[in-house]
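Homework help thread (please don't just give me the answer)

Our assignment gives two proteins as sequence + structure token strings and asks us to describe the second one. The first is just a warm-up. Here they are:
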Amino acid sequence: GETTADEESGQMAEEPEQADSADVTIEEQVLVDRDGIKVTAKEYVTDSIWGDGIKLLIENNSEITAMVSCDALIVNNFMITDLFVSEVAPGKKANETMYLSSSELKAAGIEKVGQIEVYFRASDSETYDTIFDKEYVSMQTSEFANMDTAPADTGMELYNEGGIRIVGKTVDENSFWGTAIVLYTENPSGRNVNISVDEMSINGFMMSPFFSTTVYNEKMSIDDITIFSTDLEENGIESIEEVELKFNIYDADTYETLANSEAITFSAK
């Protein structure tokens, strides 16, 4: 029941650098206008520290304090982590910027942002009751015709079943928490899926990795399996040579289990 990744698929690739995107623009547009909550995209901005983002005007014409955030943020068909949340009191407005993770854009090989898809969510900030969720909107930038669409799938194919394909790209020794194995995932399965890992070992020693990702249908993602430095140190591991793990894949909407992979063993050298 053990599967070994094809060693002939080549070395894990280094990520390209992101180009200057100061010339990217969008048209001002209303993204959401329901249940007293109105979100307007004002302009595309670039910050020297936070990177690219969309400046938003949020207006709360409801009678409750609203918390506006995202269920999902997708750039050029890649799932991107968002840190956006805004609390707006009744009858008030807020100027916020929804930043696009510069490190994730770089990992995905996105030099020019052409399309941004957002699933907005709003809830009562006191009771946490949902006002609305999964409110979908798509924005095109001035670089839409030139946007990067090629999959960043260079690396070792680890899994390819049921419409889900996972590729190991590289080992990042400088991850914030320790070390990370970078994965590319594509999902043309017809479902939104969540993926986690189980029974992971490195050089024969069991690990407690941090990894969970959601990949919407027809979308791609670049994610890290984070391996804590304390786990490596406690087991005397100075370099990652052999990795074994199992992937757990389930429907992101119904939580139905779609697949539990057999053990997958691969070399990280």
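The one we have to describe:
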Amino acid sequence: MEKTEKGLIQKIQAILEDRVVPVAMKISQQRHLASIRDGLTILVPITIIGGFAVLLAQPPVAADVMPTNFILQILCAWRDWAASCADTLLIPYNLTIGAISIYVVLGVSYRLCKHYKMDTISNIITTLLVYLCVAGIPTAFVTDETTVTAVPLTNLGASGMFTAIIVALGVIEINHFFIEKKLVIRLPDSVPPNVAAPFNVLIPGVVSLLVFMGIDGLCIAYLGTGITGLVYAVFQPLLSATGSLPSIILINLLMTTFWFFGIHGGNMLGIVTTPITTAALALNAEAYVAGKELPCIFAGAFNTVYGGYISYMAVIICILIAGKAAQSRSIAKLAIVSTAFNINEPVIFGLPTVLNPFTLIVFFICNNLNVAIAYILMSSGFLGKFYITLPFTVPGPLQAWLASMDIKAIFVWLALLVLDVVIAMPFMRAYDKQLLAEEAETIAEN
């Protein structure tokens, strides 16, 4: 029976390696998709800074709460201080998450430039200019009988992210085409490259500007909204559909399957999930600052905090409680600290969970059950949604709390951990028996 099971796994692995993995690798390495994924990854420090600025400016305590005990005294003092300094404290937020599309343009265009081995600084500056000409159009405001011209942040926040991606890819492709065809201003060879590089993007930059401003003008004339509004209207249903519970479960199933065969599931599916979760997090942050209901559940690190961060720890706990095999116990003792900080590679490759049907079943059940419960609790309003980004090494329960500033998240996370331990225990006991049999067989042979 065991040989049949191993033979089946090997056949499935061979099919994946021969047919699925090559296609998935091509998709993950496709220059435009990879540029989007890697370009948005650069934004992580920006979103962390913006999230903490929101946290400082708007502490998690209501205006009508009175300082009746020591903890509430601290929170109320924080609230009163934040209220007096709100404008200053929100500056980092307004210039990070509030203007996140600017950084999206820079990040995505930078990554695509690196792929083409083009001069980066002159190309990304051109791309930023084109984007600002369609999404950051200066507007005149009258304040105290004084006319002020300013760039509104309306289209530079989360709603402009998808337009920023399109502009970044489009402008760099136009620039690359012109440079490849040598349709550029060519200076003598004696001119240093750093001086000549800006002139290489002058003609394609003008063409890009005319193309995108022309499209924007046509959209305004015939549709009543600019290119930013049009693109957001097109992508908003996709954002909602991808953030639905069935979509999240499908993503988890695919990711777990990839990890089972030793393939980095996050890298494979990050092309799809990273733009969605980043945009959703920015939308939630904007809603939080505006005092509105947070619209997105599938935001930030929701899927990992309530998924793998819990189930991997549950597997370790099961081994430490009931495991008798020397191999698994030694790995569990070494890996528990790293797993607590969400570094799961020692378990993935040391236990291992790769090609391990016992842990595969555990992750299939636990990851999706955890996410489904958290999703339902968030959609019902019982649990806060994520609007803050944190470093991935922040322990799971703390990350669940700080990302949503809902103290109940800690208790939900711990309750799901207990549930996962209960579910995983019989599977890990069965795995432990298999390891003990293998150890006994090894001892007998020696």
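TA reply:
I won't write it for you, but here's a hint about the kind of observation we're looking for: DSSP finds 21 helices and two strands in the chain.
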